[in-house]
């Protein structure tokens, strides 16, 4: 019984962003329709919490079953805060796929590229349903790292982006980003000196930073803007979260305990009742997305294992079809 | 380039002995008691084991852990599928990943079935080592499958088994077990005709898939230690509620799976009814002074930490002997 092994570079050649976006959209639809099983992720604290371990890291185990592909899988992934200083990637992860009929392990593959691709795709699927101007939007981006790149790729695959504005606390990162991405997406990229310049007259704002200082304030987000805070920490000011017209999330339970909403929930200022809908309900057509050009919408997608499993399954199918990868007989 | 070692079930099998597993399990229990093991409650993906959808009749458990004494993090992802038996496969499918906690590199991917079987046997044997100070022991065993074999192998490494009485709903399974284990068990192996017979023992071990609470309170004599190792319901409620001490490996997990689940959900058992964890006893943090007439219920339901610890020893040996494949995932 053989298990297929796939490297990061093989994965990058097997799927395109538009295929990833398609898989992510179908999986959100499945979540809305109830044919995706996605238990809450379990966290292994390696020093990012109160375990006392010295590694400044943590890992998440994210199992899921995706109905439209009839596949089960698990992503095991973590972030190491000290890695970038050592020249190592921040993320390290792996995805396992299982045949749900009989539990055979079908594939073991790198999980970091899949994570970056699907995180980009989940934001652009959200925007597809929530942005006010889908013809030629202006998009603001906070964070010029690996996630910023896949966000840009996904947004420019989905929309005819008129202009992309980027801000990073490290100006060198912004310059390197602009140089690399201008060639890749053929969209004008403006480097901004101040965060407030990014959000001015934007249609959508995507934030992929490690910020904990709530730097996106209420006055920065104009009427009609869709804001996607994707960082795991605190990018949005309380006043902003509490005054938007709609809060949409990928998973209600998860968003109460992690990411952008965590602090206001813990302070007792926000509860489940304040969540307008899940993104899955909107994609499945069970709830309306944007209902006016004036609405300010925050969409918080923390990330669900089902998306990783869905993208990994797509990668697996394409690898089988093209004979890519190595096999190993674990059993 | 990060190199990840790949190990198949046969390779894992060739690399580890029960006595090494016992040593790793004991050190890991000690670490749990001392607080150097991180073991979140496992998360279950229900593929139809209990849920109506999806309809596969299986489940997968994700069991991440960090084990201090081997300084390794990892996860076991394991599940059970009845469909597998039709294809001549083991009921359990399992894979273990090991990670260097300093920078997150994946050190190994290996089959987890053999490790699971050995460490499950070793868990109850190590618990018995601390609960039954006498070298001689009489064992009552329910379930003559793979787990029944590894339980017996583990106990016989630590104790002189004077008598082992085996019961299985399939009599031919009991006969095969007796044949397989005749050189492992020091004393006699008795095949029970009546499920009541094995209960007359120093320790009763249940490794069945029973859901019908077959082990009756009145069968269990004073002084007996009972290990219900199955994931379902092997002991009747009266015994669980009248046992003098309840000892578990992981409180969160034991209240939500296995023998205590139903009573916990009914509000009849809670954290306050747990006397100690096995880790606290092995680490010497809770003293167990045994009254000869006490009936003890001990539930080592199984933790990812045990799998990660044993897998780390397997990896060390594979590296020094140059066994297994190498793959660069990134």
Features:
heterodimer; A: 331 residues; alpha/beta; ornithine cyclodeaminase, domain 1; Rossmann fold; 2 domains; eight-stranded mixed sheet; eight-stranded parallel sheet; 24% strand; globular; B: 330 residues
Outline of the structure:
Helices cover 35% and strands 24% of the residues of chain A. Chain A has 331 residues and is of the alpha/beta class.
Layout: helices, strands, pairs:
The complex is a heterodimer of chains A (331) and B (330).
Chain A: E1 3-6, H1 8-14, H2 17-33, E2 36-37, E3 42-45, E4 57-66, E5 71-80, E6 91-98, E7 105-110, H3 112-130, E8 138-142, H4 146-158, E9 163-167, H5 171-185, E10 189-191, H6 195-199, E11 204-207, E12 226-229, H7 238-243, E13 246-249, H8 252-257, H9 262-266, E14 277-278, H10 279-283, E15 297-300, H11 305-322, E16 326-328
Helix pairs in contact in A: 2-3, 2-11, 3-4, 3-11, 4-5
Chain B: E1 4-7, H1 9-15, H2 18-34, E2 37-38, E3 43-47, E4 58-67, E5 72-81, H3 83-86, E6 92-99, E7 106-111, H4 113-131, E8 136-142, H5 146-158, E9 160-167, H6 171-180, E10 188-191, E11 203-206, E12 225-228, H7 237-242, E13 245-248, H8 251-256, H9 261-265, E14 276-277, H10 278-282, E15 296-299, H11 304-321, E16 325-327
Parallel strand pairs in B: 1-7, 8-9, 8-11, 9-10, 11-12, 12-15, 13-14, 13-15
Antiparallel strand pairs in B: 1-16, 2-4, 3-4, 4-5, 5-6, 6-7
Helix pairs in contact in B: 2-4, 2-11, 4-5, 4-11
How many structurally independent domains of chain B?
Answer: 2
Estimated radius of gyration of chain A: 19 Å
- What is the mean pLDDT of chain A? 96
CATH H-level superfamily of the largest domain in chain A: NAD(P)-binding Rossmann-like Domain
Give the strand content of chain A: 15-25%
Q: Which architecture of the largest domain in chain B does the CATH hierarchy give at level 2?
A: 3-Layer(aba) Sandwich
CATH architecture of the largest domain in chain A: 3-Layer(aba) Sandwich
Gross morphology of chain B: globular
How many helices of chain B? The count is 11
Q: Give the quaternary arrangement of the chains.
A: heterodimer
* Secondary-structure element string of chain B: EHHEEEEHEEHEHEHEEEHEHHEHEHE
- Termini separation of chain A (Å)? 6 Å
Q: Identify the CATH homologous superfamily of the largest domain in chain B.
A: NAD(P)-binding Rossmann-like Domain
> Strand count, sense and closure of the main sheet of chain B?
8 strands, mixed
Helix content of chain B: 25-40%
Number of strands of chain A: 16
Strand content of chain B: 25-35%
Gross geometry of chain A: globular
Instruction: Give me the strand/helix succession of chain A.
Output: EHHEEEEEEHEHEHEHEEHEHHEHEHE
Q: Which fold name fills CATH's third level, the topology of the largest domain in chain A?
A: Rossmann fold
């Amino acid at each position: 019984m053989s298990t297929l092994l796939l490297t990061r570079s093989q994965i990058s050649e097997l799927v395109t962003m538009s295929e990833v976006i398609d898989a992510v959209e179908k999986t959100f639809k499945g979540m809305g329709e109830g044919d995706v099983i996605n238990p809450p992720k379990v966290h292994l604290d390696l020093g990012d919490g109160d375990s006392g371990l010295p590694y400044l890291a943590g890992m998440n185990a994210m199992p899921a079953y995706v109905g439209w592909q009839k596949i089960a899988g698990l992503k095991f992934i973590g972030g190491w805060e000290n890695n970038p200083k050592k020249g190592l990637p921040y993320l390290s992860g792996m995805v396992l796929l299982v045949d749900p009929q009989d539990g055979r392990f079908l594939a073991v593959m790198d999980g970091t590229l899949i994570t970056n691709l699907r995180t980009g795709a989940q934001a652009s699927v959200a925007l597809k349903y929530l942005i006010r101007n889908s013809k030629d939007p202006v998009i603001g981006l906070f964070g010029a790292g690996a996630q910023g790149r896949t966000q840009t790729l996904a947004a420019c695959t989905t929309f005819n982006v008129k202009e992309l504005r980027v801000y990073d606390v490290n100006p060198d990162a912004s310059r390197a980003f602009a140089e690399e991405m201008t060639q890749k997406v053929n969209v004008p990229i403006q480097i901004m000196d101040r965060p407030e310049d990014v959000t001015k007259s934007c249609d959508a704002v995507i934030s992929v930073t490690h910020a904990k200082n709530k730097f996106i304030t209420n006055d920065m987000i104009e009427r009609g803007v869709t804001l996607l805070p994707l960082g795991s920490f605190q990018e949005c000011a309380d006043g902003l979260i509490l005054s938007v017209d709609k809060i949409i999330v990928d998973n209600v339970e998860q968003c109460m305990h992690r990411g952008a909403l965590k602090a206001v929930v813990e302070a007792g200022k926000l509860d489940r009742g304040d969540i307008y809908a899940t993104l899955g309900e909107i994609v499945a057509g069970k709830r309306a997305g944007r209902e006016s050009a004036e609405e300010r919408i925050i969409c918080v997608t923390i990330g669900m294992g089902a998306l990783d499993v869905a993208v990994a399954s797509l990668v697996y199918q394409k690898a089988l079809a093209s004979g890519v990868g190595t096999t190993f007989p674990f059993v | 380039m990060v190199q990840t070692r790949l190990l198949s079930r046969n390779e894992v099998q060739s690399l580890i002995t029960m006595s090494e597993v016992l040593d790793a399990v004991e050190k890991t229990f000690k670490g749990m008691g001392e607080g150097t093991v991180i073991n979140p409650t496992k998360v279950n993906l229900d593929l139809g084991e209990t849920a109506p959808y999806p309809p596969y009749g299986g489940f997968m458990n994700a069991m991440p852990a960090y084990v201090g004494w081997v300084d390794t993090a990892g996860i076991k992802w394991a599940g059970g599928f009845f469909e597998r038996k039709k294809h001549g496969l083991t009921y359990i499918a399992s894979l273990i990943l090991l990670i260097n906690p300093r920078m997150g590199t994946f050190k190994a991917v290996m089959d987890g079935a053999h490790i699971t079987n050995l460490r499950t046997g070793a868990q109850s044997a190590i618990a018995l080592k601390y609960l039954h100070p006498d070298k001689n022991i009489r064992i009552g065993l329910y379930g003559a499958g793979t787990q029944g074999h590894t339980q017996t192998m583990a106990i016989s490494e630590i104790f002189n088994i004077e008598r082992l009485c085996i019961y299985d709903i399939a009599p031919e399974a009991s006969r095969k077990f007796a044949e397989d284990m005749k050189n492992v068990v020091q004393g006699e192996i008795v095949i029970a005709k009546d499920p009541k017979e094995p209960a007359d023992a120093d320790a009763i071990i249940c490794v069945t898939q029973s859901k019908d609470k077959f082990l009756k309170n009145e069968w269990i004599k004073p002084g007996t230690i009972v290990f219900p190792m199955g994931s379902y319901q092997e002991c009747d409620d009266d015994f669980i509620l009248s046992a003098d001490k309840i000892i578990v490996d992981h409180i969160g997990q034991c209240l939500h799976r296995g023998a205590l689940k139903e009573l916990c959900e009914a509000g009849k058992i809670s954290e306050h009814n747990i006397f100690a964890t096995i880790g606290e006893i092995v680490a010497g943090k809770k003293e167990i002074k045994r009254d000869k007439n006490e009936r003890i219920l001990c539930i080592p339901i199984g933790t990812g930490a045990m799998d990660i610890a044993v897998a780390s020893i397997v990896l060390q040996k594979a590296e020094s002997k140059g066994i297994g494949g190498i793959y660069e995932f990134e």
